[in-house]
Write a sequence for this structure.
C-alpha cells in the first residue's frame, strides 16, 4: 500500500526522513508548516482543515512524482494534516532527499507551493471573537474564461501560507 | 438522469447549510455546465460562488463542457487553501 499523504492524526516527522536509506543523498530539506496564532491582524485560536480526499490524495501524489522528476531527486514525501488543529500543530510536512543541498531546498519549496495551490484542502480559521472564516484560496478550475490549466488566479499571496 | 447529487465543500457547504444537495434533473441536463446552472437556480445563495468552483467526478476534475457523469454525482470545490 502506498504511503499516506493525508492524516487525520498528528504527523510524526521522524519516520518521513528515511535517515537509514538513500546513501546517494547528501542533502535533506525539511519544511514543516505549523498553525500560527494570527492572520491578517486577527488573533487565531485554532483551525480546521477539510479536503476532498480522493482528489487531494491524487494531487499530492502527483506533486511528489512531478517534483522528483523536475529536480531529479530520489525522494519526496508530503503529508498534510486534516481535522481540528491547535496553535503550533503541524499542518504539513515535506521532506526531500537529494544529492546536494541546492536541489533539496528548491524541490522542497516547489512541492509545498504546489500542494498549497492545487490540492483541494480548505482552512477554516477560528478567531478570538468567536467567529470563523475560510481562508481565501486558489481557484483550481481549469476551464475558467478559457484559461490554461491551473491559471493562478487568487487575490493575495499574503492571505495564505 | 433523474436526479443529481451535488457534494459541497468548505464555504459552499456553509452557505447552503448542507454537505449535499439533491435535485431533480428533469430533461435538458446534459453537460456539467447544465447541472451547475440548475444548482444556481435552485440555490441562489450559492450562485455567486460557483464560477470559481472546480467540478469533480470521482477523483478527476471535469470541465463545464463535459457530459455529466453517469452516476449523477458532482463535487463542487471552491478555491483551495491548504498548507
Amino acid at each position: 500500500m502506498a504511503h499516506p499523504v493525508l492524516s487525520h492524526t498528528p504527523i510524526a516527522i521522524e519516520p518521513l526522513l528515511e535517515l537509514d536509506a538513500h546513501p546517494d543523498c547528501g542533502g535533506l530539506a525539511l519544511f514543516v508548516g505549523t498553525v500560527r496564532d494570527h492572520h491578517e491582524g486577527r488573533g487565531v485560536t485554532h483551525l480546521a482543515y477539510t479536503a476532498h480526499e480522493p482528489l487531494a490524495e491524487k494531487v499530492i501524489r502527483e506533486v511528489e512524482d512531478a517534483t522528483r522528476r523536475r529536480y531529479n531527486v530520489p525522494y519526496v514525501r508530503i503529508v498534510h494534516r486534516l481535522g481540528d488543529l491547535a496553535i503550533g500543530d503541524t499542518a504539513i510536512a515535506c521532506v526531500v532527499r537529494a544529492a546536494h543541498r541546492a536541489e533539496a531546498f528548491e524541490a522542497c519549496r516547489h512541492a509545498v507551493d504546489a500542494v498549497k495551490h492545487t490540492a483541494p484542502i480548505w482552512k477554516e480559521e477560528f478567531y478570538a471573537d468567536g467567529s470563523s472564516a475560510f481562508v481565501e484560496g486558489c481557484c483550481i478550475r481549469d476551464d475558467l474564461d478559457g484559461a490554461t490549466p491551473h491559471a493562478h488566479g487568487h487575490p493575495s499571496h499574503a492571505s495564505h501560507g | 438522469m433523474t436526479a443529481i447529487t451535488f457534494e459541497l465543500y468548505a464555504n459552499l457547504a456553509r452557505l447552503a447549510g448542507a454537505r449535499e444537495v439533491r435535485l431533480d434533473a428533469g430533461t435538458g441536463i446534459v453537460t456539467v455546465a447544465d447541472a451547475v446552472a440548475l444548482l444556481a437556480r435552485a440555490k441562489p445563495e450559492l450562485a455567486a460562488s460557483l464560477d470559481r468552483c472546480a467540478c469533480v467526478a470521482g477523483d478527476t476534475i471535469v470541465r463545464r463542457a463535459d457530459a455529466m457523469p453517469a452516476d449523477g454525482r458532482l463535487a463542487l470545490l471552491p478555491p483551495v487553501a491548504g498548507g
